[in-house]
Write a structure and sequence with these properties.
- By secondary structure, the chain is α/β, with parallel strands linked by helices.
- Helix content is 43%, strand content 14%.
- The chain has 16 helices and 10 strands.
- It has helices at 15-19, 47-51, 70-83, 96-108, 123-131, 143-156, 167-173, 175-184, 199-213, 233-236, 258-268, 277-290, 297-313, 318-323, 339-345, 356-363, and strands at residues 41-43, 55-60, 88-92, 111-117, 135-139, 160-161, 190-194, 222-228, 271-275, 326-331.
- A 6-stranded mixed β-sheet has the order 1-2-10-7-8-9, sandwiched between helices.
- α8 packs across α9 (199-213).
- The longest helix is centred in the last third of the chain and has 17 residues, at 297-313.
- It starts with 14 loop residues before the first helix and ends with a helix.
- The structure holds ligand F0G.
- The site of ligand F0G has 22 residues, from α4, α9 and α13.
Length: 367
């Protein structure tokens, strides 16, 4: 079947078909899709009241085909790799990029090689790469080491590097900003987003600027990026040699898109700050228990940032402004990818005998 002749996904046409006129694709580019993009934007039920802004929405990027936002950029990068006759793709990853690369490569008949930092990737993400048949190289180093090596290999061998240093990745990822504007009719006042390798915050900014210039939005949001305290190079202004955080996806000490992220922050009048692991896990629990949204810890970092920002702006001169603001938090990846963290927090599990009385007693139901 030709990629162009048929719509591969009759219901979700995918990023290439939906936003092709704003992407670097031409007639030679195969219109591949796993149904990425078109993710839900849901209104907050409880956290909105806690933080006291006018409107709070969650952009559920965890609803993409491989469970993270990476699919938007990966579909463009893999389509361009196919167009240039590549036979293999390569990436370094804290887990989500590799899951996405493995899936799109499998669909398109390409080999996938993924470099993952030893002991630093959540089990669900590893399972995805295994399931899709990627060649997994467990690098005895951290993410930054893995990315440096992947770049070198791609310079010397005919494999397409599909990390976000590949410009097609950010182009695809910017479409999430388009969707937010399309859904609420304008850009929000503030966008809260986790920052790791710093590609996504840069891509969103590009998308918002593009829509603003095309007069499809009347404003641009302030970009509010959040790193984990133990992996916050952009906040401290220097690379972190041994980054640490419960949020393994953003355990990155020397982000590839550092300068682009600073530009997004500065041009938008935004901020890039840090949240502690404790704050991340508290937001992770709130999202799951008060909003019904089970995301991975890295995604919760931006909600932790929102709670922190709201606490600080209450009473300050910015408080009034914040109370009148529309806010979007980007929920980047699915909680199922990292079951260890979910089960490690607090277990509500209780063993019971397989008898009706035992279950009634455990449920606190009187006879
Ligand atoms: N949230 C999740 C769930 C991620 O997987 C990542 C990055 C980020 C946020 C940060 O986005 O890097 O564009 O600033 N994950 C990469 C990976 C590094 O390899 O999957 P960023």
């Amino acid at each position: 079947m030709s990629y162009r002749a048929e719509t591969e996904t009759p219901s979700h046409s995918g990023v290439l078909r939906r936003y092709g006129d704003r992407l670097p694709i031409g007639l030679e580019t195969p219109l591949i899709s796993l149904g990425e993009g078109d993710t839900p934007l849901v209104r907050s039920r409880r956290i909105e009241g806690r933080v006291g802004c006018r409107e709070l929405y969650f952009k559920l990027e965890m609803c993409n085909p491989t469970g993270s936002f990476k699919d938007r950029g990966m579909v463009v990068a893999v389509a361009k790799a196919l167009e240039s006759d590549a036979k293999a793709v390569l990436c370094a990853s804290t887990g989500n990029t590799s899951a996405s690369a493995a899936a799109y490569a499998a669909r398109c008949g390409l080999d996938a090689y993924v470099l993952v930092p030893h002991g630093n990737i959540a089990q669900g993400k590893l399972a995805q790469a295994v399931a899709h048949g990627a060649r997994i190289l467990d690098v005895r180093g951290n993410f930054d080491d893995s990315l440096r090596l992947a770049r070198r290999i791609s310079e010397q061998h005919p494999v397409a590097l599909v990390n976000s240093v590949n410009p097609h990745r950010l182009e695809g990822q910017k479409t999430a900003a388009f969707e937010i504007v399309d859904a609420i009719g304008d850009a929000p006042d503030l966008l809260f987003i986790p920052v790791g390798n710093a590609g996504n915050i840069s891509a969103y900014w590009r998308g918002f600027v593009e829509y603003y210039r095309a007069e499809l939005a009347t404003k641009k949001p302030r970009m509010m990026g959040w790193q984990a305290e133990g992996a916050a190079p952009i906040v401290t202004g220097k690379p972190v040699e041994n980054p640490q955080s419960v949020a393994s996806a953003i355990r990155i000490g020397n982000p590839a898109s550092w300068l682009l992220a600073e530009a997004a922050r500065d041009e938008s009048g935004g901020e890039i700050n840090a949240v502690s692991d404790y704050e991340i896990l508290e937001a992770y629990r709130l999202l799951a228990q008060e909003e019904g949204i089970f995301c991975e810890p890295a995604s919760a970092a931006c909600v932790a940032g929102l709670l922190k920002y709201a606490r600080h702006s209450a009473g300050a001169t910015g408080g009034r402004l914040f109370a009148d603001s529309s806010v979007v938090c980007v929920i980047t990846g699915h909680g199922l990818k990292d079951p260890e963290t979910a089960l490690g927090i607090e277990s509500e599990m209780q063993e019971v005998e397989p008898r009706i009385e035992a279950i009634e007693e455990a449920m606190g139901l009187a006879r």
